[in-house]
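ok here's EBP isomerase:
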Amino acid sequence: MESADHPYWPRSLSIPGYRPNDRSMAEILTFLFSVSGALLLGTWLLSGWAGPRLSTGRRLVLCWFSVCGFIHGVIEGWFSLFHLQIPADQHFLSQLWKEYSKGDSRYVIADNFTVCMETITAWAWGPLSVWTVYAFLQHKHYRFVLQLVVSLGQLYGDVLYFYTEYREGFSHSEKGHPLYFWFYFIFMNALWIVIPALLIVDAWHHLAAAQSHADKSKGPRQRSHID
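and the structure:
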């Protein structure tokens, strides 16, 4: 039986206390991409003069982690704290989540998996993303360890995110919808599979090269005692 009091799927979903957004989709998306764009530009400029000289590719990586810090820490942090209030709340970030939920209604019903996954993402990968930016700007020796840890966590969480919804038959979105399914649900989340996977490979190469150099710098007697 269809329900006409909300725009989410499945249409029979019960969402007690739900209030429609009073802000338009354009306002919400403009905010999201404007703040992300400002962070990208700011990090790009900062990485050009702060700390050691970085390659273009490395500066783009720092831009990515900067945006991750904002999305994980602020937007997903809001969901982690206020997931029960979101359906009835009209705060801007709650409305952002109600808009995104048109592509995945698990967020508007505080699905147990999304709450657990987003809480870990917000309070672990958010701060660590910011720390990763700092570590590269300051040329810290642990910078690629942070890149590996954060990227692996992002990749693992996103694989579970897609796989759990796949097992439910993609029932929480209008499957095939060009905006809600393909852009909100598929494209925006696929970024956190493709980019972290590339960064894991990048970190692997740098850490392996560092270990190889450390092994070669030790004499035969020292190498014989390596565990």
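+1. The radius of gyration is 21 Å.
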